[in-house]
């Protein structure tokens, strides 16, 4: 389960592209990633195994955008979950010289499962000087539980030179209504943009004891490395 793109049906994607088409300043891009572990909000979504991920994004000149993103996943065997597709519809733009806002609706979808794992979340992210951000996410069906959940994150990136930067974030997930508990996590990573359009990222993740109680071996401390290409 992930934040970062959306999943949707072909008709929904067509609607998004139709919105973006009239704007001459619209853009289209995407990315592909090979990662040693798919970690989302501090917990592994692949039981610590590698994953291949890819996504695309269409943006109109007025800030409206739509994106689709997919990844392999590995949940409990009884769910038969092997893939995740995220579909996002949103708006992003500048509020002032140093401030930007992104608001979106993200739908997480897991096709072919024996239980309904699909759910939707509203997200908002404020960014300052392109390097510091505060995010809030809310759903009345958090993690497909049928109950409310709220997620918050503070993050920062520190460019070191033209090729290197550090990135860190701390997050808290309030799941008391769904699971009777909440948890916190943190991450710190280094990114090497060694040759456009490629980047190599190494990130260390850690969670608190509450995450271990909620998700057992899926939480805790782990390190993941990822090679990403953007276009």
State the secondary-structure class. mainly beta
- Chain-averaged pLDDT: 92
Binned strand content? over 45%
Give me the CATH architecture, please: Beta Barrel
CATH topology: Porin
Helix and strand element order? HEEEEEEEEEEEHEEHE
CATH superfamily: monomeric porin ompg
Into which percent range does the helicity of residues fall?
Answer: under 10%
Number of helices: 3
> Can you tell me the number of structural domains?
1
Largest sheet: 12 strands, antiparallel, barrel
What's the overall geometry? globular
Strand order of the largest sheet: 1-4-5-6-7-8-9-10-11-12-13-14
Gyration radius (Cα, Å) is: 17 Å
Count the beta strands: 14
Give the end-to-end Cα distance, rounded to a whole number of Å: 24 Å
Low-confidence parts: 1-21
CATH class: Mainly Beta
Short description:
By secondary structure, the chain is mainly beta. The chain has helices spanning 10-20, 176-179, 209-215; strands spanning 27-35, 39-40, 43-44, 51-59, 64-72, 83-94, 99-109, 119-128, 132-139, 149-159, 164-175, 181-195, 198-207, 222-230.
Salient structural properties:
twelve-stranded antiparallel β-barrel, 3 helices, mainly beta, 14 strands, Porin, 231 residues, two-stranded antiparallel ribbon, globular, single chain
Please, could you describe this protein's structure?
This protein has a twelve-stranded antiparallel β-barrel with strand order 1-4-5-6-7-8-9-10-11-12-13-14. The protein has a single domain, classed as monomeric porin ompg (Porin), CATH 2.40.160. By secondary structure, it is mainly beta. The radius of gyration is 17 Å and the shape is globular. Mean pLDDT is 92; it is low at 1-21. Helices cover 10% and strands 56% of the residues. The chain has three helices and 14 strands.
